[in-house]
Structures
1.
Amino acid sequence: MRAICLDQNDVQFHPDFPSPVPLQGEVLIDVIVAGICETDLQLAQGYMGFSGVLGHEFVGLATSGPLTGARVVGEINCNCRNCPRCRSGLGNHCVERTVVGIHQHDGAFADQVAIPQSSLHLVPDTISDDQAVLIEPLAAALQIQQQIELGEVQNAIILGDGRLANLCAQAISQQVENILVVGKHELKLARFRRLGIKTTLLNDMITEKDYDLVVDCTGSVTGLPLALQLVKPRGTIVMKTTVAADHQVALAPVVIDEIRVVGSRCGPFGLAIELLQAGRFDLSGLVTHRFGLEEAEQAFQMAVDPAAFKVVFDVISTSEN
Amino acid sequence: MRAICLDQNDVQFHPDFPSPVPLQGEVLIDVIVAGICETDLQLAQGYMGFSGVLGHEFVGLATSGPLTGARVVGEINCNCRNCPRCRSGLGNHCVERTVVGIHQHDGAFADQVAIPQSSLHLVPDTISDDQAVLIEPLAAALQIQQQIELGEVQNAIILGDGRLANLCAQAISQQVENILVVGKHELKLARFRRLGIKTTLLNDMITEKDYDLVVDCTGSVTGLPLALQLVKPRGTIVMKTTVAADHQVALAPVVIDEIRVVGSRCGPFGLAIELLQAGRFDLSGLVTHRFGLEEAEQAFQMAVDPAAFKVVFDVISTSEN
């Protein structure tokens, strides 16, 4: 099969990669569309030391099991379902877990990917392929409200103007009226304003400790020090993006201002699908560039271009995206 | 009056320092006993850039106002009582605040200190001077349970074997049965075991992500990276000590393990006094070394000696300590 692999920090298209052999409980999925995520870009820079097929945001067709023939999306953490963490409901944190396209599990930038049947979610017909490929990051954005009581938040600031920032801003704005998004790219910020969300360029921002909630979606080590300059005493910083590099940061303000810093990762797929079906999120136009798997190099270049929003691979063609 | 001052990172005894002139609403206190805290040692190394009379843990006699003649302790944050933060109950985080012996407010290593009357608490007769001087750090230890729901904590580990670690361990052990204290000094750890608290030397510790709650009382930049190796996914790290230096730390685990990091500072004096009166804390023998103000140099040297626990200055003599 065709596949895009990471090997020694080198992203390469392979025209004839061995198809995945499903383990017990896994289902072989024919990938329809797969999206490039910030984490893929970090992985390509050495984060997690991953080697293998990249890709963890996808929609595809199940080829076996009870969902055969149906369109599905898959959660990325493949856990053992048996250890103390799994049994206590922390399956996403299973020590033995593999993570699709990130850790010891080949991913979805390929014709086929093997996913545990228990990780699959049916995609309703009302959700398009281009919406479905965003269910994974949308679920991650919705994880914030699982961890933080948003009802107590008077105002929030989102650092970053990228893909995840957009979904986080949409998710938080469902419950918090007063939201500001800070970014470096006027082109990307315009996307937020079209959703009715206020924005500012980083250089124009007033830096005051004035926000109950700061969400760091920068994917950069500069995000946390900035967040500490913006969060109110007793306020909350959500770290939404992982960074491969070490942080060098003065953390005394965390203690002095009694800040709560909350790491936030994968979220509830079921809720994401439900809210998408209910029309609560506007994902239209977020997929801006499409490539074939053969065009891996161009696609990864485009994914770091400020003109791009979501870059996807069309793997098999369906009637509509 | 006599006073111990910090000037350009130099701790000096002054035999004839000007007495403080109370501002409106402040009361002049004759200091009885004052204790050296880890923060004083950090200040002497340049933390906060403080210059002035050191000392924020004290018990003394009020010389004016409704508490005249009574033994009192004082909260360290002197706030404006008028700004939005003060009015919303965040007086300890007032932007205009001075902090006794720490920030723009002369402290209690002196014959007299000026404290806002609203910051004073009466010390009941059943609480000795040596207990009273520990009310400030005890309140800080009790702040943890104001910020974290300890009822949900199955097990906790305290990093550090010093003064604040001891009070935090005692505070947390009131609600959490399974507690371990990690330290570098057998002599200091023995103090915890006498209270029935389990201990381990740092070199003998098994490093596993096994704790619901990790409290960093190390006063060192090594505390947080160690805490991240010990906290369970979705667990909580409380940062209880400030560090003057920058942290260099890989924070990806905060996101991956969805950790909550909570900075914790000053706490409720009223609760500390109430629990001390009720005999819920054993502070006996914690004051190990006593000096006169003239012996500032020896006292500060002793405060970093592992053989010492709490080092205090006897400022005026009373019948008993």
Note: Chain B has a mean pLDDT of 93.
2.
Amino acid sequence: MNIDTLIHARWIIPVEPDSRVYDHHSIAIDSGKIVAILPASAAMEQFSALEEHYLDRHALIPGLINAHTHAAMTLFRGLADDLPLMQWLNDHIWPAEQKWIGPEFVSDGSRLAIAEMLRSGTTCFNDMYLYPDHTAEIASSIGIRSVIGLIMVDFPTAWAKDPDEYLIRGERVHNNFRHDPMVRTAFAPHAPYTVSDGPLQRISTLAEELDIPVHMHLHETMNEIRQSIELYGKRPLQRLCDLGLASSRLIAVHMTQLEPYEIETLGQYGIHVVHCPESNLKLASGFCPVKELIEHGINVALGTDSAASNNDLDMFGEMRVASLLAKGITGDSTCLSAFTTLQMATINGARALGMDDISGSLTVDKAADIVAVDLGTISTQPLYDPISQIVYAGNSQLVSDVWIAGKQLLRNHELTNIDTAQVLRKTQSWKEKICQQIPVT
Amino acid sequence: MNIDTLIHARWIIPVEPDSRVYDHHSIAIDSGKIVAILPASAAMEQFSALEEHYLDRHALIPGLINAHTHAAMTLFRGLADDLPLMQWLNDHIWPAEQKWIGPEFVSDGSRLAIAEMLRSGTTCFNDMYLYPDHTAEIASSIGIRSVIGLIMVDFPTAWAKDPDEYLIRGERVHNNFRHDPMVRTAFAPHAPYTVSDGPLQRISTLAEELDIPVHMHLHETMNEIRQSIELYGKRPLQRLCDLGLASSRLIAVHMTQLEPYEIETLGQYGIHVVHCPESNLKLASGFCPVKELIEHGINVALGTDSAASNNDLDMFGEMRVASLLAKGITGDSTCLSAFTTLQMATINGARALGMDDISGSLTVDKAADIVAVDLGTISTQPLYDPISQIVYAGNSQLVSDVWIAGKQLLRNHELTNIDTAQVLRKTQSWKEKICQQIPVT
């Protein structure tokens, strides 16, 4: 049978249906989809491919899914660190955003972010930011899979002046990309404390009509809870339930403040949780009870949050910290095993975004979203268990090759579809402009 | 003036006397020592060097000091993960050790560890393991700085049969390396629960006589505390005080269980603490109260612990996790700033090991233990603050060049003094032997 691509690998870790690891197997790809996973010897007999790859010290894993980020903010990476949250926002991030955000900033920042994400094995990202049409455009042109948040806040920004305009512009973005196979959209009301009841109710209705998810920061800090009780007489999750937003469409990001009965609520409605451990630690927001959530059958995905609060978009670091932190916090060194953590970064992300039919695992008929991890280096030897090695000793620099929908976007550590030198030049020029305004050490 | 080496760098971060960052400066090196740090233009006028390096997108930092590891155990990296501590030790690590530990295992494991440490910017490590003479020998022949633990436990091992023999063999190692400028020794009684009062008292006396530190696991888990109270009627720190071991010679590793009055005790005696955040999290041991220790003026260094419980020897990961975890645990996002964390990984380590007169900062007359970090990559751009970038967005793969005592041991990411292919071959052969014994997935 003639096909597009054959990848022969030392190990294949499909993630579904379970934690099995295939030795010396191959993935056959045609028209962007996985058509077979089989022993290398059989693959060479059955298939004749236009392109063949021999990765004899590598593991193939499903493309990583960054379930929460603000890609364009990568241009603010490390702009202000070691500050209290409100000082960080009020004195640094918001003034910088007010001054600089526009179509060009968002395009250039998104391109920088996508370059970093591809180099570290991320094949799909769930974004929330202003000028989402520009992030969508850049992502689509490069070929990375994305879920673009149709941002909404009560107050005016450079993108829209009021909730009506956010909705109109958001729906326009949705329509413009509805036939793009690599771009999906989600409503993205920023947070319970920045969006009032009226707009949230409209989003609830529209999300059903358009059949898209709702992506929202939720229960990020204790302060958010206090403020909600003061203003609405209830905790934010209860308020969303009352507004009709609690459902399996809801992608609830952070969730560091949860009462036991709220964990039940999440399970009851099938709400997805996105855990961002590095951002939560760095901003001292609190701890998402991941072990308990998983025990209650709740789908938990992983996100990096923005590079302004992380300070990278590296899902390997996020996996490692997620697993270590859960063990440390619960006192249970067996929880969030390497495999559970890898599921969070792949299939759970796909489920949260409603695309587990096309990505999140290496399965016949799914899109060929594949990452090759080189486990033959000094820092990943000896190797007793590939999954353990990836999560506990792995790092983004081991990612050698990335395919999305069968198209190779990283080849032997080099981006095939992004001019790295140009990205670095543009980033440097933004840095110089931004530094003129804000004194930095 | 004729000298050996000139390194011109985009930034130099000396760590002492403070958090200053020099732009476009150079380090002049002669006979293994730093002779000057000055603007690049002045350096080119004043010095004529045999070797010159131009690192125009790099920051030079002091060599990182891994203040607690068990180098040879790197051969057990990922052998058994996601297990309770005692099951991990009883069913996996100890049987594997009993079966395999010997001079060849320790030599090969140490070489693998040193290769990883050099590639990730570590120029000095504080070790504790059996056959310390072999680790010392390998470290010395490669040229990395080491403090070799003269291991002691009550029970027999392949290395010695009883406390007397541990002491005799330990003193022999001390004497054999006393004139080696790159090797120092420390007494290394394993832990309060594995060494009884008599041997500890003798170590206390001998450490004074030989003028060397005492390196010990201390207050690692709640269980250790409980056991000590049961057996000795007091907590381990109090027991060490009573045995005369509390002093500025003592390097106390882990310290996850501390009462407020014990923090006072540490300060009073000038005891050094080594924080191993990734190991403590992974084994769910507890949290070292680093913020409080620093506020009490206690010297806190950083260590990776062994690759069997980490699972790497990467001090960049350790810095990042140390800083994030402290913020998360205390709820104070301003604590363990990037600079404080970099101090922990450099000058504080040197202080703990009693070698801050020769390493730990880029200072005239200190040894040229220098690491070049490439900050010009996609994942470290834009760059507003080099120190912040190193700690929060840095990773070990940014380390391009390493000098120890002026000798270049890593050049453009390649080890100059270790045959990487041979290390990988030997590691693979150990893995095959070990796997024959222990079924792995």
Note: Residues 420-437 of chain B form the longest helix (18 residues).
